[in-house]
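haha ok so turns out i had the wrong file open the whole time. this is the CORRECT one, sorry everyone. sequence first:
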Amino acid sequence: MTAANIIVAAVCAVLLALISGMLTDAASAAASTVAASRAVAQAMPVPARIQTPCISQREEPTIVGGITYFRDCADTPAMATFSGGQFRMGDLFGNGLSYELPPHDVHVAAFALARYEVSIAEWQQCMEASVCTAPSPDNASKPRNHPVVGVTWLQAHEYVDWLTQRTGRRYRLPSEAEWEYAARAGSRDQYSWGNRSEPVCGYANALDQAGHRAQPQMFWYVECDDGYATTAPVGSYPPNAWGLYDMLGNVWEWVEDCWHSDYSGAPTDGSAWISGGDCNKRVNRGGGWGNNPRALRVSNRDADPQDTRSDGMGFRVARNLIDAGK
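then structure:
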């Protein structure tokens, strides 16, 4: 071997040794990185599993008069979608109270609203998931298809937040404007059945002879009898023109809005009015089983502290619409 060849061989040997060392170091570094990543992953907290998640099993939607009826899951509330529009809100007859004034135009965006008030059975699902807390004892002796009562406004939020987790859709309480828009169902009448209160027993659960027999001290009853002394099973009476049940009567329904003594300065876009006013009190609408039909007028409104429990108070849910098909 010539001197030149010896030099070349020596240089190659040195280069191979360097490359081998670099590869060994890289492998060691990679192994260290993998080990470190595994250690970090093991140290990271595991996200809490959503309580009783449901796989979306939307029923085949039913479309009636442009309104779509659906459920996000087999055991979640039956919903109705509304494309929105303009309506006149407040006392349109001049026989209401000051807090129903002034009448004003409101434009409501598209949204979905439950067809029924939340039932005892639906509330119990949320309790069994260890999310919702116990309502008042008023529900204990009632069938599970009656509306849940004795839930505070704060507890109603427990339920809508749970539905949001389960479905991946944004459930919430309706705004007062959305509630009245849906209750009116395109009408300017005082009630969902017209302007006369006399037929109330055929259309809504108000205080009637059955209620008076059970509680004689309640003297403001009407002279008809629907057989229900307090609440009735949800959906016992005919729906309004848009397929919603018990918008008037059965139980008062919490909505999102803070209490304002009238509509001066109220939003005109259908959103909940949560600025100003008294936000320790929240609005409720629709009247209930213990009320005279006057309280069931579609424009009537009331409010209670947000931690109030009442055997005449319940709620229904609303839901944002991502698009026309959801």
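The radius of gyration is 30 Å.
again sry for the mixup
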